[in-house]
Amino acid sequence: MKASEIAYKAAEIMSERGHCKDRLEDKNGAVCHQGAVLLAFHSAVRLTPEGRTLFGWSLSDAEKAQLDEINVTGARILEAMGDNNHLGVVSFNNNLRTSGEDVILLLKESGRILEEEGC
């Protein structure tokens, strides 16, 4: 799967599960930017007895490169918007003023740019 497809899938996952801050996934199954991307890499996830997913897998080198592409693209978008208050997508996600819809839009725009770049 291409990085653009991962970014689009991550946006879809967050739309379905909800948005959280300061953790990959909260107790209700909502995810942060990075959590959504990790779930997009691994559509078959292990579940806890309570039905929540467990993050514990490792990424291949190719997946790590794609994660970097998505994060760097997101940071480029934030910089182009004049957002100098954040150090990257994680900081943006965790900011009190950032909504889930803001993060979903960032993931979709990252996907669009990566798709244009052939990634």
Shape: globular
User: N-to-C SSE series?
Assistant: HHHHH
Main pleated sheet: none
Kindly estimate the percentage of residues that lie in beta strands according to DSSP.
Answer: under 5%
The number of domains: 1
Question: Level of helix content?
Answer: 55-70%
Distance between the termini: 9 Å
- Helix/strand-derived class? mainly alpha
Helix tally equals 5
The radius of gyration over CA amounts to 14 Å
Average predicted confidence as pLDDT = 82
What is the β-strand count? 0
Return residue spans where pLDDT drops below 50 for at least 5 consecutive residues.
44-49
Structure description:
There is one protein chain. This protein is mostly helical. It has one domain. The protein is built from 5 helices and no strands. The longest helix has 20 residues, at 61-80. It starts with a helix and ends with a helix. The relative contact order is 0.21.
Characteristic terms for this protein:
single chain; about 120 residues; mainly alpha; globular
Summarize the structure.
The chain has 119 residues and is mainly alpha-helical.
List the topology elements.
Blueprint: H1 3-17, H2 33-41, H3 61-80, H4 89-94, H5 100-116
Helix pairs in contact: 1-2, 1-3, 1-5, 3-5
